[in-house]
Amino acid sequence: MNDIAIKIENISKEYRLGVIGARTLKDELQAMSAKFRGNENPNSKIGTGCSEFKKGDFFKALDDVSFEVKKGDAVAIIGANGAGKSTLLKLISRITAPSAGKICINGKVSSMLEVGTGFHRELTGRENIYMNGAILGMSRSDINRRLDEIIEFSGISQFIDTPVKRYSSGMFVRLAFSVAAHLNSDILILDEILSVGDESFKQSSLGKMDEISKSQGKTILYVSHNMSTVRRLCSKAIVLDKGRLIFDGRASDGIEQYMSVCASDSCASSVELENNIRSKYLAQRAVMQKIEFEGKNAAKFSNDEKCIVALKWRALENIENAMVRIVIKTADRNPVGMSISDCAIHSRKDEQNTTRLALDISHLCQGKFFCDISISQKTSNGKIDNLDRVENAFSFEYSGSTQASGILWQSSAWGSNVFDKIEIL
Amino acid sequence: MQQKYDTVITAKQSPLKINFKELIAYKYLIFLFVKRDFIAKYKQTVLGPLWAVIQPFLTTVVFTAVFGNLAGFSTGDVPAFVFYLCSNVLWHYFSASLNACSTVLVSHSHMLTKVYFPRLVLPISSVISKLISFAIQLCFFLVFFGIYAAKGQIEPNIFIILTPLFVLHTMLLSLGVGMLISACTIKYRDLTMLISFAIQLWMYASPVIYTYESVPEKWQTLMMLNPLAPVIEAFRYAFLGCGNFYAGFYIQSCITTAVIFLIGLIVFNKAEKNFADTV
Question: Do A184 and A305 have their domain in common?
Fold first, then answer.
């Protein structure tokens, strides 16, 4: 039995730098004359003219990627911006052709790289359902059969015979999504589309996607930066980094792999903070320079250890009654909680300080955590004023506590917090 | 182990391999594009499809006044108004569909980068959608044709039954040239600026406002090398009885049209897979 939906063999996609930007004959001539004189092409895209890439060089958006997707799998494609995720989806959905390699597909592919492609402002909602459905490859009878379902799911049946130019953007997106969700293709390609609509629609569209992959047995390729939807929808994941495939396997492992790529030197025993990027809204009055995990060669903690760090920082002015605030986040950057010290930090201007901090992490589940750290002060009107703040400043790994009724919390699916025992009153 | 797949995408695909089966599967999309063009064009207009008639009518009036009366171009025994209307209807279809066909890819670039469908759907549907306004214009022309024929001022003949052929011929020619240009406009937007001028030039190179006989003899053959010229001549001969049916020139035009159409198809098909990257 042939149970492979998509088979990708050694796929590469190259773009020639600079040429993509040239559009008119004039641009092309300019580029040629610039090349002749040895100058930089004035039309090349920003960033492509830098020393890293030379003119006429090829940029590999995808480099020798191979993998297989089985029928009925929901596969997440994750990676940082520019890792080649969208390029991969475009190749599979035949929007562009690969430079090398081979893609074999079994079944009908529908891609939703954007909801509402092909909607025309002047047509009514109903007409646009037909239009959009046809563009996505549905036949007239398919659409007729699903029309009621589509209208009902969109929740805008009242306005279905109004031209879509009168729609609010939310209505537009709802309609577009419901068309896409009711396609009768075997393979669905979704690119970051669940980030639309209000919260209730988001939940129902997630539920719909879940239904499509689990009960209808369709194959889904899903690109998102939202790891909690990835976790919810997908059983498998492939991770791309700079055009190369670096992971192919279970979704939860893939997410961890991706997160560790993002924070390349995560769990290091000391982290420099001085050159980290600060928010542009920050009025900096102190500079955090370094964090050291004392007596450790990696930021790994176990059992009931406390996370003890030495924070080295410098005051830019006289500081009194400041405090340290740490926000703890999971690997997919969802906040778990926050901890604040007493307002007991003082420093004179230009003084070098080392503040030792102990963070109780015994209530965390096993896993990897990221922290934002800030030095703050309470203002006279009770607000908190950041003197310095670094996001995702450091990370640590916690192997879990045995404290909670002796159960070893193995799986991250148990959440990220361990609460105290329930007392029977 | 060899497995059978529905779709295989490889880096190099022959430009001669055109998936007609798939194109037919998307016929409903062609229909919808045509419908959309028609609805969107006349929505929120008071006169609606009547506009399809007004435009060539006004052009004809201007032609009759300028070329017929002021410049004194000869239209033979045929009244100037119906002469210009006849040539204009066919010419207008050609120029409108060529124009639509050449710009269709750029105007649908947002779709090209977001979703896959056979790209040939776009030029084909734009040519068909212009056929609707042509049909309206033809009916409008037939009214005057009836009036003048009743008065005995024009002499229609048996070639009138070839009208569908003339229309198909015009359609394929505009589709062929249109595909060629649209495949190039994706890369060089300059052509979109040039196209309206080129179409105007083409009109003067075609016997729209003049006839084959009124051209100096040494230029006649050159003029008829323009694949559109014999079609317009034949169309006018069939309805108005002016001029003649030049079979030799017409066959030559058929061959030229077929060649242009094939070249256009191949170039379009070759450029198609990278539209999304270049657009």
Answer: no
Residues of B in contact with A98 (CB under 8 A): 9-11
Are A205 and A243 contained in the same domain? yes
Same structural domain, A93 and A139: yes
**Contact between A134 and B29 using a beta-carbon 8 Å cutoff:** yes
**Of A208, A228, A262, which closes a domain?**
A262
Both structure tokens of B125: 């549907």
Specify the 3-state DSSP secondary structure of A253. Answer: helix
CATH no. for residue A128? 3.40.50.300
Domain with A309 in it: 270-414
In a domain? residue B42: no
Q: What is the ipTM of this complex?
A: 0.79
Same domain, A279 and A228: no
Residues of A within 8 A of B111 (CB-CB) are 117-118, 135
- Domains in chain B, number: 1
Cβ partners under 8 Å of residue A144, min gap 6: none
Q: Is A316 on the interface with B (CB under 8 A)?
A: no
Residues 154-213 of A with CB under 8 A from B: 163
CATH number, domain containing residue A316: 2.70.50.60
The answer for B 212-271 residues in CB contact with A (under 8 A) is: none
Boundary of a domain, candidates A234, A262, A290: A262
Whether residue A16 is contained in a domain is answered as: no
C-alpha–C-alpha distance, residues A236 and A249, integer Å: 6
Nearest 10 degrees: CA dihedral of A400, A406, A408, A409? -70
- How would you write the pLDDT of chain A (425 residues) with one tens digit per residue? 468 888 888 888 887 766 544 455 666 666 666 666 655 555 554 444 444 445 556 778 888 888 888 888 889 888 877 788 888 888 888 888 888 888 888 888 887 777 777 788 888 889 889 988 888 888 888 889 989 988 988 888 889 999 888 888 888 888 888 888 887 778 888 876 655 667 777 788 878 888 887 777 788 888 887 777 788 788 889 988 888 888 888 888 888 777 766 655 567 778 888 877 788 788 888 999 988 888 777 788 877 788 888 999 999 889 888 999 999 988 777 888 899 998 888 888 888 999 999 988 888 877 788 889 999 988 888 888 889 998 888 888 887 665 544 444 444 446 777 777 788 88
- DSSP result, chain B: -----SEEEES---TT---HHHHHHTHHHHHHHHHHHHHHHHTT-SSTTHHHHHHHHHHHHHHIIIIIIIS----TTS-HHHHHHHHHHHHHHHHHHHHHHHHHHHHTHHHHTT----TTHHHHHHHHHHHHHHHHHHHHHHHHHHHHHHHTSS---GGGGGHHHHHHHHHHHHHHHHHHHHHHHTT-THHHHHHHHHHHHHHHHTTTSS-TTTS-HHHHHHHHHSTHHHHHHHHHHHHH--S---HHHHHHHHHHHHHHHHHHHHHHHHHHTTHHHH-
Q: Report the residue of B7, B13, B190 to disrupt the A interface, i.e. the one with the largest count of A CBs within 10 Å.
A: B7
Q: Compute the Cα dihedral for A214, A220, A226, A227 and give only its sign.
A: positive
A45 Cβ under 8 Å from any chain B Cβ: no
